[in-house]
Amino acid sequence: MYETTYHRPSTLAEAASLFSGASEARFLAGGQTLLPTMKQRLAAPTDLIDLSRLAELKGIEVTADAVTIGAGTTHATVATSAEVARAIPALAKLAGLVGDPAVRHLGTLGGSLANNDPAADYPAAVLGLGATVHTTKRSIAAEEYFQGLFTTALEEGEIITRVSFPIPARADYQKFRHPASRYALTAVFAAQMKDGSIRVAVTGAGSDGVFRAEAIEAALAANPTPSALDGVSIDPAGMLADIHGSAAYRANLVTVMAKRAVGGWAG
Amino acid sequence: MAKVSLTVNGKALTAEVEDRTLLVQLLRDVFGLTGTHVGCDTSQCGACVIHLDGRAVKSCTLLAAQADGAAVTTIEGLAVGDELHPVQAAFREHHGLQCGFCTPGMIMSAVDMINRLGGPLDEETIRHELEGNICRCTGYHNIVKAIEAASAQMAGLSQAAE
Predict the structure, then answer these.
(1) What keywords sit in the KW lines (chain A) (predicted)?
(2) What is the predicted ipTM?
């Protein structure tokens, strides 16, 4: 790891002013992606601004219509929250599938979203539920937030403060995990919202990162059961391809995972 | 430089380290607690797992400065005098190690999962919980057996204590 200067602000305002005063600063949330990247010397921020102890970024609030989670909340906290499990069980399940137990003890919702890895889990829930990403500057709809591989609507120095997830009528998350990295080779978050509309978001498969599978949404809108997807195929163009799976393999997995997710609605 | 104060295995320790120092480097190179191992450089192997304020974390994926003020338990802090922790004793009893390199992390993860989930734990749960720890010798079978036995024993002990 290259040299860096560590800062631990006690308020968001202090974090923002530290950021603007540094030449090439990065915010440090749980550090479970940023620190490995720095160890590989693939990132070399001059300054690290630790957000992990900011009380302003903590907490889970559940209302009749939404679950709002502080950006600094760890995956382990979301995975074991009885409130989240009652309101959106698929979200608690998703948090429990990130990485491994030690990673979940440090990694955070905000960190995952700010990084927007194309195989990360949380982007699927944010897009799949049409969540709103709140920041130190504004509120961003899921559709506008994700802008391609490791790219988001966040501006320099903008910090995610919390995320509001609308509570669906039913939802499930199905993940085909890479057995070594635990990242999604392909994973699908499928939801039927309280107004009856269907949202299906796919992570791990798209070459532009998380996306909504419109063909699958249309088929489920007509008939919200797994068998509705029997004839639905996804175009391999636009899918990621690497040594772990071809574009055609991932395209097929999208339908398979979507079927399982809709199957999960029953239970 | 960062001044870091920690409680390590019950003892208050302080050190002045470079900001980029990882917690595992502080534990091993400054405090001499070499039971915590570094097996990979990619945060995947789990040989460096320690407990930070009672939760299992990878000490290679945390800056020492981030841990300032925390209570850390390492593999050296588990035994009481000559008496091994039940998980340590179970690893010996069930041959849960061959070369032993991954063992400190395996045991710290095992203690964490038993603390969080209670016991006795079944094989499926143990294997799922061990996803962040890699062993290249044993094929995991005896590690899982050791944790099964220890979790049952510790559940018995905690019932007896109630």
Answers:
(1) FAD, Flavoprotein, Oxidoreductase
(2) 0.95
